[in-house]
From TrEMBL:
UniProt similarity note: Belongs to the short-chain dehydrogenases/reductases (SDR) family.
Coiled coil start-end: none
Single GO MF descriptor: oxidoreductase activity
Main enzyme class: oxidoreductase
EC number: 1.1.1.-
Keywords: Oxidoreductase
InterPro entries linked: NAD(P)-bd_dom_sf (IPR036291), Sc_DH/Rdtase_CS (IPR020904), SDR_fam (IPR002347)
Domain of life: Bacteria
Source organism of the structure: Micromonospora maritima
The name this protein goes by in its record: SDR family NAD(P)-dependent oxidoreductase
């Protein structure tokens, strides 16, 4: 009798700081992790890697189909891919607006859609964890980023309710300020202001966000859906 393979998880934005931490956390909990990123240097510690531009809906659908064909139907999808340009509202144009929304919201929407359709067709349960942001609750100096993350929060609540009858859980984490290359784009004076307002007195770490993602991906949270978990050191 052969052992069953470890459950499969897909992590988008796998080359980034939070993505790599999520891959490590899910690996520790016994998952095979497929890391997806448009950067060919996606996390080498992953079970497998896929290169794709998740701003393109057809590529998002291809990723889900390819992963299923090569590795099986995932138990977990983590929609972590994100773009933050640290751009003033008056400097936006249609192209940069689309870049932010297509990745931050579009990849989450179409990735979950393709994954949920596959689960329902197979009669299988599954778990989706979206990576939102405190900016989705409080707004952001980068208006497109804040709007995209606010939409991810609304999408999480909507899909958590809509897919519950199909045994598909959809939750999100909403990190505050986290020490990642993306956060390095925040101007120094603004970083100092944020840090002064955080009750915990510091920025978070990717591992702390990843721990929250891993819990939402675990059967221990089986009665949790349509929920957004703040990971922000008390900043509101």
């Amino acid at each position: 009798m052969t052992d069953s393979p470890a459950p499969l998880a897909v992590v988008t934005g796998g080359a980034g700081g939070i993505g790599r931490a999520v891959t490590a956390a899910l690996t520790r909990t016994g998952h095979r992790v497929v890391s997806v990123d448009r950067d060919a240097a996606a996390d080498p510690s992953a079970y497998a890697t896929v290169v794709a531009d998740l701003a393109v809906p057809e590529q998002v659908e291809r990723v889900v189909a390819d992963v299923r064909a090569r590795h099986g139907l995932p138990a977990v999808l983590v929609n972590n891919a994100g773009v933050y340009l640290a751009r003033d509202f008056l400097d936006y144009d249609a192209r940069t607006y689309a870049e932010v929304l297509d990745v931050n919201l579009g990849a989450t929407f179409f990735g979950t859609l393709a994954y949920a359709r596959a689960l329902v067709a197979a009669g299988r349960p599954g778990t989706v964890v979206n990576v939102a942001s405190i900016s989705g609750r409080s707004g952001s100096p980068d208006a497109a980023y804040g709007a995209s993350k606010g939409a991810v929060i609304a999408l999480t609540r909507s899909l958590g309710r809509a897919l519950a009858a199909h045994r598909v859980r959809v939750n999100a984490v909403a990190p505050g300020l986290v020490e990642t290359p993306m956060a390095d784009r925040i101007p120094a004076d603004r970083r100092d202001d944020y840090r002064a307002r955080i009750p915990a007195g510091r920025f978070g770490t990717p591992d702390e966000v990843a721990a929250a993602v891993a819990w939402l991906a675990d059967p221990a949270s089986s009665y949790v859906t349509a929920t957004v978990l703040d990971v922000n050191g008390g900043l509101h």
